[in-house]
Write a structure and sequence with these properties.
Number of strands: 39
Largest sheet: 9 strands, mixed
Number of helices: 2
CATH topology of the largest domain: Leucine-rich repeat, LRR (right-handed beta-alpha superhelix)
Shape: globular
Radius of gyration: 28 Å
CATH class of the largest domain: Alpha Beta
């Protein structure tokens, strides 16, 4: 009995000690989450405040520079997301506007940002559909992905002079954007930054701008780029922008009179999406000097001829499909191939890798057969092949990457081999009515059964 009582006392004392420790911790935790009548906020270790939620009823909002005597330094993720505000003034002292902080404020027409602001996060003002103009302070060094995406009424914007980091699709689908100021001091343009900005017709690039990611002006209205002939890095001629130092063709504007283009000898790289949006481009000739291209480098919807010498040291074109010789990689199936030519594609025997996004957006493709020589299908390989009904994967494939069949809603029949040992995220997730033929007891069979897909099980020797 003594031992039992002693054990009870030990247990009781330990429990009391743990409870006291927990109570001692609670104030430190709760101190980080506070609330006033209009704002929820957190107190950072440095004593500054991050606003986490606006609960007020005012539509013309001036955010306080201080709350309870502590300076406001950050507007946190989703703080004003989808709130019914028409105007907002962000106070001095705020250095960061985080992800989606003002996204989906459909009535927002006026935004005032402070000098000293350093960062505007991903989708911070996305889908503020009534916003007509924005002045980004020169102190801002980083613009996140899609920061102003789908601000449909936006007509003018500027990039800050201190900009050193720009995400992708920053002004994507700002259809009314017709004026953009890129000041001296800005050093970069993000990937697809002005995609579908169809009212934007001309841009001036300063001498400080030395880094341009994948075609910032794809599907925009830009037909002219103004650039100094003495620019230290970039050169522009007849609608084509180059990085001279890196011997890279950065982009080709969609000029209506251009149907053919020969890449200059000496060019070594063709950037991703370089020719995307060139709707009238019929033929592109690629010299032997080009040693680096990307999946979407030649995505022209009306392209009929990609001319590469059979003796090219790096690349080969077979039946309009682009391959890399060294690692036997299928880089790109032509997005331009019409329905009549898309009933069936058989990957050539000997190919080992289906590259990432190799068949991306090949909308009319109906069926693909992959030979036993292929070992790897990389991420997104068949993404958005919406009319593809049949996918037959050969017996050599061991790895299927992430998102390989995303948006392949028409897929009906898939054949998987016993050789597969790894299947990435979302394979067949978008293919609800698919029937999978797969060897009994295999890794692939277990995957498909776990996904709830209809399986036809075969014996391994079959």
């Amino acid at each position: 009995m003594r031992n039992q009582n002693g054990n009870f006392r030990i247990f009781r004392n330990a429990a009391i000690m743990l409870l006291c420790m927990a109570l001692a911790i609670l104030p430190a935790v709760s101190a980080g989450a506070e609330q006033t009548e209009d704002y929820e906020y957190e107190i950072a270790e440095d004593g500054t405040i991050g606003i986490t939620r606006y609960n007020g009823n005012e539509t013309d909002v001036t955010i306080p520079a201080e709350i309870d005597g502590k300076p406001v330094s950050v507007i946190r993720t989703d703080a004003f997301n989808a709130r019914s505000i028409t105007a907002v003034t962000v106070p001095d002292g705020v250095v960061s506007i985080d992800e989606r902080a003002f996204a989906n404020c459909s009535g927002l027409t006026s935004v005032t940002l402070p000098e000293g602001l350093k960062k505007i996060g991903n989708k911070a003002f996305a889908e503020c559909v009534a916003l007509t103009s924005i002045r980004i302070p020169d102190s801002v060094t980083a613009l996140g992905d899609r920061a102003f995406e789908c601000c449909f009424a936006l007509t003018s914007a500027n990039l800050p002079a201190s900009l050193s980091e720009m995400g992708e699709l920053v002004f994507h689908s700002c259809h009314e954007l017709c004026s953009v100021t890129i000041p001296e001091g800005a050093v970069c343009l993000g990937s697809l930054a002005f995609e579908w900005c169809q009212q934007l017709t001309s841009v001036t690039l300063p001498d400080s701008l030395v880094k341009i990611e994948s075609n910032p002006f794809m599907y925009s209205g830009v037909t002219d780029i103004i650039i100094s002939p003495d620019h230290p890095v970039l050169s522009y001629e007849d609608g084509v922008l180059f990085n001279r130092e890196e011997k890279t063709l950065l982009l080709c504007l969609a000029l209506p009179e251009r149907s053919r283009y020969t890449i200059p000898e000496g060019t070594e790289t063709v950037a991703d999406y370089a020719f995307a949006g060139c709707g009238d481009m019929y033929a592109i000739s690629v010299p032997d000097s080009v040693v680096s291209v990307f999946t979407h480098s030649f995505d022209c919807v009306n392209l009929r001829l990609l001319a590469i010498s059979p003796d090219h040291p790096v690349y080969a074109v077979i039946d309009d499909v682009l391959f890399r010789k060294a690692d036997k990689r299928l880089i790109r199936y032509p997005v331009f191939r019409r329905s009549a030519d898309n009933e069936l594609y058989v990957v050539p025997e000997g190919i080992r890798i289906i590259g990432e996004y190799a068949f991306d957006d090949c909308y009319d493709l109906k069926a693909v057969v992959i030979p036993d020589s292929v070992t790897t299908i990389e991420d997104g390989a068949f993404r958005e092949c919406q009319r593809m009904k049949t996918l037959e994967i050969g017996n050599g494939v061991t790895t299927i990457g992430d998102h390989v069949t995303d948006y392949c809603s028409g897929l009906q029949e898939v054949t998987l081999p016993a050789s597969i040992t790894s299947i990435g995220q979302d394979f067949l997730s978008y293919s609800q009515d698919v029937t999978v033929t797969v060897p009994r007891g295999s890794y692939a069979a277990q995957y498909c059964e776990n996904m709830g897909r209809t399986c036809v099980l075969t014996d391994p020797e079959e």
